[in-house]
Every structure is written in C-alpha cells, then in structure tokens.
Amino acid sequence: MQVSVLAGGVGGARMADGFARVMPPEDLAVIVNTGDDFEWHGLLVCPDLDTVMYTLAGIANPQTGWGIVGDTWRALEMLGRYGGETWFWIGDGDLATHVYRTFLWRQGMRLSEITDRLRRALGVPVAIWPMSDDPVRTIVDTEEGRLPFQEYFVRRGCAPRVRGFIWEGMERAQLSPEARAALEAADLVVIAPSNPYVSIGPILALPGVLELLERRRVVAVSPILGGYALKGPAAKMMAELGEVPSALSVARRYRDFLDGFVLDRVDAALAPAVEAMGIRPLVTDTVILDPPARARLAEEILQWVASWV
Ligand code: GDP
Ligand code: CA
After folding, report:
1. Which of 182, 179, 147 is nearest to 161 (CA)?
2. How many domains does one find in the chain?
3. Atom of ligand 1 nearest to the CA of 48
4. What's the rounded mean pLDDT across residues 126-153?
5. Which atom of ligand 1 is nearest to the CA of 65?
6. Using CA atoms, how far apart are residues 309 and 305, in angstroms rounded to an integer?
7. Which ligand gives the minimal distance to the CA of 237?
8. How far does residue 67's CA lie from ligand 2's centre (Å)?
9. What mean pLDDT is predicted for residues 80-89?
10. Which of 6, 37, 159, 266 has its CA 20 to 30 A from that of 132?
C-alpha cells in the first residue's frame, strides 16, 4: 500500500514518523506545508520541512519537537551582539541546514530537489516533498493587522485574535511535481494531526489538490482532543473564527474528501456525529509523543483501512 502523509510541523512529523516505523520506506511519502517558510537574515528557512526531516532522521529535539537535539546557540548570541533580530530561535546545527539550502536555492535548484538531497544526506529513507516549489507565504489577518506567519506565531506568541488567512503567492503556485506524483500513486492519503488552518490549509489551497483527494482514499487524524490542541493555536484559531473548538469541526472542514476520521478516546462521544457525515470514525489513543505510540497509531490506521470493503 502506497501512503502519502500531509503534514505541518510537530504533529505532522510525529504521524509521519509512525508510518516510517511500520512501512517499507519506498511506499511512503510525506508532503509538507511551506506556508510557514520565511527569510531569516537572507536565508531560506522552512520550519515544517525541517521538523519533519529532523524527526525522521532521529535528530529532533524531543523537548520542543523542533530544532536539533543538543544544538548550541553561539551563532544566535553573536548575531544578537551585532544587533540582529534573535526572536526566531535557530541553533548552530540548524543554521547549517538553512545556509546549505539557501546556497543550493541560489544555484537554481528547486525546493523539492534540495529537500530530497538534504533528507538523503541525513539518512532518511522516506521521501519528503515540499507542497510546492513556488514560494507561498501565510499571512495571518488579525485584529491588530496583517502579520507574516512567524511574526504572529513566534514573535507575538499567537496572541492577536485571528480573522482569517492570506496565502501570498498561492495564485502562482503549483503542487510540486514530486508531491503530485506521490499523491497520484497513493492508495491512502493521511492528513496528519496538524493545524487545519495554517499547516494543512495551504496544501489544500494549491490548485488541483482537492480534486485529487476526492479521487483518493483519505483519512485524517484529529489535532484537537477534548476541544484542545496539544500544542499551538489550532483551538484558539477555531474559537476566534467562530467555530466550536472540537474534533468535529476538523472533520467538517475535511468532509468533502474524507473517508475516515481518527478521534481520540476523550472524544468517543463524537463518533456517531462523524458517522452521520458519512465518514468512518476510528476511536483510539491519538497522543503520539513517543515513537512506540506513533508506530502503534500508524499500524492501527493501516489495518483499519485494509479492513474496509
Ligand atoms: P507546527 O507546524 O509545529 O505548529 O505543527 P502542526 O501543525 O503539525 O501541529 C500542531 C497540531 O498538532 C496541534 O493542533 C496539536 O494539537 C497537534 N498535535 C501535536 N502532537 C500531537 C499528538 O501527539 N497527537 C495528536 N492527535 N495531535 C497532536
Ligand atoms: Ca509550522
């Protein structure tokens, strides 16, 4: 069975890691949001791609979920001494990723090719593709004005109330050819428990993706448990956008192309409502902090889908 996982950062990386542990690597591809990407002191930084890559390479910082385990901060300290902006945390090892990526980017390589080269160098046997080779930048429309995603997320700590999102560059962006090929070959597409607005939203907004998903078997894992996000602003955004922060709201967002929806045990009572939408529910443990839990959930999803007639 060929599987493609649509992923943002930390939640996406955890789910992708689960599948990577229970499947032949050549049957798996991870398609990653690039709406969070930005330029940092002239370097191209792709936070979600790096979170997925470091996690699959086994070098992610287990405390934060992002960054490299045991990384040091000498470069950032020095940058601060020059008066450079240091609100976005980039460790010394992490910095090398952005330096090398930017170097290849300036030579004209596509982001898909660059990502493939980086992940192979780190010994990751699973394909990781950016959603697009074209720059797409998430802008958060807030009550305090429009903020580039990292300004909203890191600098402002997601404090401003959200009114909506703008994807700069989306009108010119195409799905990466490698990501398209993976999706077209997929027997199963898994939408990871990532932020539905800012991590999965940009991938779904690319031309042709919804049509592609309608023709595939698609399962989503809820990033909302008991009305809360385990991390990040997903639930806060839902409330600010006038939706009920609930796993059910996530299922509703994806309902046009969803065949199955995985809910946490705390949300077992929502399963009948999911079924009423014509979507198969699976109630199980969805907290996948550690590798055994990730592998267990991935295996359970594969067996569940295989049991469908
Ligand atoms: P970011 O780009 O690092 O913010 O990461 P994502 O968008 O991929 O993930 C953020 C979402 O992942 C939040 O809504 C979390 O609730 C969810 N999440 C993180 N870890 C887990 C987990 O172990 N299980 C589930 N079900 N959701 C998770
Ligand atoms: Ca992210």
Report:
1. 147
2. 1
3. 2
4. 97
5. 3
6. 9
7. 1
8. 12
9. 95
10. 159
